[in-house]
From TrEMBL:
<feature type="domain" description="GH3 middle">
    <location>
        <begin position="348"/>
        <end position="427"/>
    </location>
</feature>
<dbReference type="Pfam" id="PF23572">
    <property type="entry name" value="GH3_C"/>
</dbReference>
<dbReference type="InterPro" id="IPR055378">
    <property type="entry name" value="GH3_C"/>
</dbReference>
<protein>
    <recommendedName>
        <fullName>Indole-3-acetic acid-amido synthetase GH3.17-like</fullName>
    </recommendedName>
</protein>
<dbReference type="InterPro" id="IPR055377">
    <property type="entry name" value="GH3_M"/>
</dbReference>
<keyword id="KW-0175">Coiled coil</keyword>
<feature type="coiled-coil region">
    <location>
        <begin position="11"/>
        <end position="38"/>
    </location>
</feature>
<keyword id="KW-0436">Ligase</keyword>
<dbReference type="InterPro" id="IPR004993">
    <property type="entry name" value="GH3"/>
</dbReference>
<dbReference type="GO" id="GO:0016881">
    <property type="term" value="F:acid-amino acid ligase activity"/>
</dbReference>
<dbReference type="Pfam" id="PF03321">
    <property type="entry name" value="GH3"/>
</dbReference>
<dbReference type="GO" id="GO:0005737">
    <property type="term" value="C:cytoplasm"/>
</dbReference>
<dbReference type="Pfam" id="PF23571">
    <property type="entry name" value="GH3_M"/>
</dbReference>
<comment type="similarity">
    <text>Belongs to the IAA-amido conjugating enzyme family.</text>
</comment>
<feature type="domain" description="GH3 C-terminal">
    <location>
        <begin position="442"/>
        <end position="564"/>
    </location>
</feature>
Length: 584
């Protein structure tokens, strides 16, 4: 049997697996909950909810409360300080997974077990095979995946704490699996110096440019950062390729050893070609030009990552953007069965064997804002959600999370057999708040997407944004930070005051009735827009990375809570504008 037939059979098997999973969603969900209760009902945390020892689904839903991380944190802290994990779960904890902390607040520690890791491996494997099924020949070349780690920590009890990606990249599963098809040597990925790692990964990617058929990262925010790094270092990268000699400032022994096996000789022809491409004034389509065989770019670009879609489309030059799967530090949820969907239209299909899922109905008012009270109705099971309805997802896992509110709001867009498909709508948190107004991430994103349409005919691109509520004055106001560039080059656009004020007005017009009422009554001042120079948000990423975030998992904050972060963006400000809108 030839290789092509083998691959075809693998894809057919994958689709058969998906058919089986989604057709038996209800049965699998019942089995998952039964397994969790059978294993963990005797723990200190759960046993108090089953005084008669009857740990069935009905008792679980009647007695076990819906919680947030703060409710489970005392148990996590006790385990971290040396108490037995059996107070929360029956399985041995191999380590803690740390959430990034840049989108939903403070980092959280989530238990990881050998069993939960095995379940997590299922989702990305299926997602990858579904994607390859849609792109002929994508299984034959190499992947330029930009991956980075952060140093591990230890709890007082000796348990390792790390980001999930750091943990995963050190596993045998990664090293003997996906890593074998990456242009980046494992030594470069595991280099804790982000700058050296980035340089070496881009260098090896360029050296193997004719073999690269896929490009990607865990989150979309990494790719624009990588292109900016390339813009800053392409001359030095070309010099390394031209001479066959690695820059002296690359001092990491693993990187130097790995590169000695790849950068084996001078290649002036390749260096000249790369130089010619990079010297072009416009970097539109730069990814396609440098890696001409790329078939798709794989990266999560939904939710807060959607702000990077226009920039990736600009740099990609028509390369399809694929958002493969939806997961969090706490659990895996679903995969994208239609990889060719436009990024803003992506829906994920729930995998019913990864955790037990419940859904809190979320009411939407006429303005489209999700109401703060989300628990008026009882949660519904996976197979009982309704089309076009909004829900906040609640998970129960083998790792000690019981009826745990993830904080993400989803919209049901359809069904694949018995399993629902959904779009990520927003993270369940208010990002801006003054007085009675509470503006969510979704409200803010939609308003900014409308306002930026004014700039596009002028050739101006909004590359990224953030915000904060300025209450230093009375009345307070919302402040937006925008980083702008000219399409085709990094030049700062000429800022027309009238146009920028129009953007402010459009944002305010897009907010809900409560905001407009408070504006009209003078409780909130007119919105302020601060434009920052190119590269300022890279400095913001560096700031959060220095505080423990990972470039691989970095999620740009929609709203800034740190005074130091606000000060950093203010230092890059090149113009400020105010809404002249009068709210009637």
């Amino acid at each position: 049997m030839d290789g092509g037939t083998d691959i075809k059979e693998i894809y057919e098997n994958v689709m058969n697996i998906l058919e089986d999973l989604t057709s038996n969603a209800h049965k699998l969900q019942e089995q998952v909950l039964e397994e969790i209760l059978k294993s963990n009902a005797g723990t200190e945390y759960l046993s108090r909810f089953f005084p008669n020892g009857q740990a069935d689904k009905q008792s679980f839903k009647t007695n076990v409360p819906i919680i947030t991380y703060e409710d489970i944190k005392p148990y996590i802290d006790r385990i971290a300080n040396g108490e037995t994990p059996s107070i929360l779960l029956a399985y041995r904890i191999t380590q803690f997974i740390q959430s990034t902390g840049t989108s939903g607040g403070q980092p959280k520690l989530i238990p990881m077990t050998a069993e939960s890791f095995e379940k997590r491996m299922y989702e990305p494997l299926l997602a990858d095979l579904v994607i390859k099924r849609c792109f002929n020949g994508s299984d034959e070349g190499k992947s330029l995946y930009l991956y980075f780690i952060k140093p591990e920590m230890e709890t007082p009890s000796g348990l390792v704490v790390s980001l999930y990606t750091t943990f995963y990249f050190k596993t045998k599963s990664f090293k003997t699996g996906l890593a074998k098809f990456c242009t980046s040597p494992i030594e470069a990925i595991l280099c804790s110096d982000t700058k050296q790692s980035m340089f070496c990964q881009l260098l090896t990617g360029l050296l193997q440019r004719d073999e690269v058929v896929r490009m990607g990262s865990s989150f979309a925010s990494v790719l624009p950062r990588s292109i900016k790094f390339l813009d800053d270092y392409w001359k030095e990268l070309c010099s390394n390729i031209r001479t066959g000699y690695l820059s002296d400032w690359i001092t990491d022994a693993g990187c130097r050893n790995a590169l000695s096996l790849i950068l084996t000789r001078p290649n002036p022809e390749m260096a000249d070609l790369i130089q010619q491409i990079c010297e072009d004034k416009s970097w539109e389509g730069i990814i396609k030009k440098l890696w001409p065989k790329i078939k798709y770019i794989s990266s999560i670009c939904t939710g807060s990552m959607s702000q990077y879609i226009p920039l990736l489309e600009f740099y990609g030059g028509g390369i399809p953007l694929v958002s493969p799967n939806y997961s969090s530090s706490e659990a895996c949820f679903g995969i994208n069965l239609k990889p060719l969907s436009k990024p803003f239209d992506v829906s994920y299909t729930f995998l019913p064997n990864t955790a037990y899922f419940e859904f809190l109905p979320v009411n939407k008012d006429g303005g489209g804002k999700a109401q703060e009270t989300r628990t008026i109705d009882k949660p519904v099971d996976l197979v009982n959600v309704k089309l076009d309805q909004y829900y906040e997802v609640v998970v129960t896992t083998l790792t000690g999370l019981y009826r745990y509110r993830i904080g993400d709001v989803l919209k049901v867009t359809g069904f694949y057999n018995k399993s629902p498909q959904f779009q990520f709508v927003e993270r369940q948190n208010v990002v801006l708040s003054i007085d009675l107004d509470k503006t969510t991430e979704e409200d803010l994103s939609k308003a900014i997407m409308k306002a930026k349409l004014v700039l596009e005919p002028l050739g101006i691109m909004l590359t990224t944004y953030s915000s904060y509520a300025d209450t230093s004055l009375i009345p307070g106001r919302y402040v937006l930070f925008w980083e702008l560039k000219m399409k085709g080059r990094d030049d700062l656009p000429k800022l027309d005051a009238e146009i920028m004020e129009q953007c402010c007005c459009i944002v305010e017009e897009s907010f809900d009735f409560t905001y407009k009422s408070l504006r009209k009554g003078g409780v909130i001042s007119g919105l302020e827009l601060r434009v920052v120079k190119h590269g300022t948000f890279d400095q913001l990423m560096d700031f959060y990375v220095s505080k423990g975030a990972s470039i691989t998992q970095y999620k740009p904050p929609s709203c800034l809570k740190s005074k130091e972060a606000v000060k950093m963006l203010n230092s890059g400000m090149v113009g400020k504008f105010f809404s002249s809108k009068t709210m009637f």
